[in-house]
């Protein structure tokens, strides 16, 4: 199973905290998706290889648990995807607002004859 690196390879040196959070969430989402896919494979093999007459008691419970975990992990990956979309939207909105603010500050500085502080 893969390990998360402390810094995403896509991380920019001048990234904002939101951009770094998005990069980290993307890395986590990929790990969760990979884990879900691996669990699907394991669960499928177990269900195919263990004869039905043996799928009782603890074995049946274990198979049921892996199936439930598979669903929970897939749901978590989808939730992470939604969080990442919200973060990306917030980053876009903030970038747009920062650009407008910079233009407003420049116009104000020009109108008052002062140098912009940024």
Structure description:
The structure is a single chain. The model is unreliable at 1-10 (pLDDT under 50). The chain is mostly helical and 118 residues long. It is built from two helices and no strands. The chain has helices spanning 17-49, 57-112. Helix 1 (17-49) packs antiparallel against helix 2 (57-112). It has one domain (17-112). The longest helix is centred in the last third of the chain and has 56 residues, at 57-112.
What structural keywords apply?
118 residues; mainly alpha; 2 helices; rod-shaped
**What is the count of distinct domains?**
1
- Rounded to an integer in angstroms, the radius of gyration calculated over CA atoms is 24 Å
Q: Profile the largest sheet.
A: none
Portion in beta strands: under 5%
The coarse overall form would be rod-shaped
Mean pLDDT, as a whole number? 85
Q: How many DSSP helices?
A: 2
Secondary-structure element pattern, one letter each: HH
- Number of E strands: 0
